[in-house]
Design brief:
Length: about 300
């Protein structure tokens, strides 16, 4: 026979052990206590050669959530099976506006079958299509184009919500380049309906553009639900200088972006659901690179 106190102590110890074991198996990114995530654009070349094997490698480093950037001609059922086998959850997917505009119903159906929670527009479109003889290459978005995109996002978001999926937009650098005295990203924030459109803040590209992620997170509470986390070496520059002085991608913690204040601000004013490392180029073998990023995310305390 054991005493009630001993019994309760043993139960508490077992519960604590189970919690620690679960936390370790999920592999959390410590800054906001979220599962460790990866944007699969990071391993686009590897996925094209060996989809299942690459996902397994991503999972072996400790990533537990992923955001897709293409499905390599696979069905939703095949993708879901490969993800489950690699112990990964595909919670979000990127599509350019052109694809969303051309086949939105098909993309929504695919996304719903796959079970993703977020459908993200990864690049804007033009209000007026290029002529049949030309293309959009070299065209520059006008302020009217940006405003039209924001209005389209509201429509796309409303339709996604009806399918049980959140719709959002992901920035690069040109959203922060002044057009006719206006910053397009501010127009996106102004025009989009928060109940229909969420925002995925790419902290790295926003920094390269000369914007400050801390200010965006502070000044627009509740607008951001996901973050992209990437680093650049010290030659990061504003939009005006990008063409002449391209920023150089590097692994997290090896560049010039200080993520501690960014995560601190996100914790105060946002309800961040997912964070994704995105490694657009590698300074070392890619599995080593992904591990450096994972270790950084697991080790950073705010």
């Amino acid at each position: 026979m054991i005493s009630r106190r001993s019994f309760l102590g043993n139960v508490s110890a077992a519960a604590a052990y189970a919690a620690v074991s679960f936390r370790s198996s999920v592999s959390y990114a410590e800054p906001l206590g979220l599962p460790l995530g990866l944007q699969l654009y990071s391993v686009r070349e590897q996925l094209a050669k060996d989809y299942e094997g690459t996902l397994a490698q991503v999972g072996s480093v400790g990533y537990r959530e992923v955001e897709a950037a293409g499905f390599y001609q696979r069905s939703a059922a095949d993708v879901k099976q490969a993800m489950q086998k690699a112990n990964l959850r595909c919670v979000s997917a990127h599509f350019p506006f052109a694809d969303l505009h051309a086949r939105y119903d098909e993309i929504l159906a695919f996304s719903k079958e796959l079970g993703i929670a977020y459908l993200i527009c990864s690049s804007p479109g033009f209000k007026t299509p290029a002529s049949s003889a030309g293309s959009d290459r070299g065209r520059v978005l006008t302020l009217d184009d940006w405003r039209w995109n924001a209005e389209q996002f509201n429509l796309l978001g409303e339709k996604a919500a009806a399918a049980g999926i959140h719709f959002g937009y992901h920035n690069h650098v040109h959203e922060f380049a002044v057009v006719d005295g206006v910053v397009p990203y501010m127009e996106i924030l102004r025009i989009t309906d928060p109940s229909k459109v969420t925002l995925e803040l790419d902290c790295g590209w926003a920094t390269v553009a000369g914007a400050k992620p801390v200010d965006l997170l502070r000044d627009h509470p509740g607008r951001f639900s996901m973050l992209h986390v990437k680093d650049f070496k010290a030659n990061v520059s504003s939009v005006a200088g990008v063409g002449a002085h391209e920023p150089t991608v590097t692994e997290l913690g090896l560049g010039s972006i200080d993520y501690r204040p960014i995560f601190q601000q996100a914790a105060k004013t946002q309800k961040i659901k997912h964070m994704f490392v995105e490694q657009e180029a590698f300074d070392m073998p890619y599995m080593q690179s992904l591990k450096v990023d994972a270790d950084y995310m697991r080790g950073l305390k705010v």
